[in-house]
Amino acid sequence: MATFTVDLLTGNIYLFTGDFNGSGSTPTSGSTYPQVNTYAELPSAASHTGEIYVVRNGSGSYVLNRKPSGFYFSSGSVWRFLGETPDFFKSNNFQVYDSVDNTKGVMFQTSGVSTGVFRTLTVQNSSGTISYLSDLNTKVNISAFADYTGTTAPATYVSKTVFNGYTGATLSLINAKQDILIAGQGINISGTTISISLPKAIQLIDSVGGVNVNNVVATPITWSSIVFSGTSLSFTGGSRIYIQETGVYGISYILNVNNDTGSVKNVGTVIRKNANTDISPMGSASININTTNDSSTNIMPENMVSLTNGDYVELLAFRIGSTGAAYTVANSSWIKIHKII
To answer: Do 193 and 268 belong together in one domain?
Structure first.
């Protein structure tokens, strides 16, 4: 087996062809390994297959491209380091650089670990930011618990996913006390005073009648009498009912018409907003008997719509069948609008 030794005066490394024998004599013939100053000065590995070179000095940045000093063996394609773990894995050398600014990064401090012990840092199966115990001083005021004398809760934890499906309403506070009522849904809260807004409605009738509504161009129905009036709506005469509070409203009506000629009549009706937007389904009634004074009624059960303060609504009637007159009947038609929420 070949033996090598190091000349302590010159630092040269010698490879001997024989072994040291038991007498302690030293062979005098031998040769040194080829030496270079740094890894970059090594010749091509392909031209020195199976040979060993000595690199006298380490070079390159730690972690990024460090090439330590020591023995290197040519595999025929690359130079492989022969020796201990490269020194860039030492805690005072190992660094992680920022991908944008390589003048900043992180290092590891292992001096507090007991001799002969390797600690394990386990990464959770999720992304997040590492925080320290010292951070708690800025997040929780521990003095808030100084006077606590109750029973300590069991050391159990509730996952935040338990709350992900919560769909309830956030409760308002009245004088620092929680209340189950929420302002804005017909309930007003002012300080310690709670008031409930009762439904607001208006109902109108046509006490005059005699208007021909069997026309292609829609005819607004004129109302002459107020049966009931609430504060969220305004009526000053004519066909328009004005909205004074934004909200959801229910609208219903009955329109009674009388056939004045000997032909079938078919009258349609619709609720229209601001003179240009139809906001209800069309209801219609036919006068089927070809004689005068036959009547029919258009009826719409309550239909809910969203209206805004300043809007106005009207009931309009129009011809969808034969020509001829069909007149509204006095005291037989009405409209009701009430605010739901």
So the answer is: no
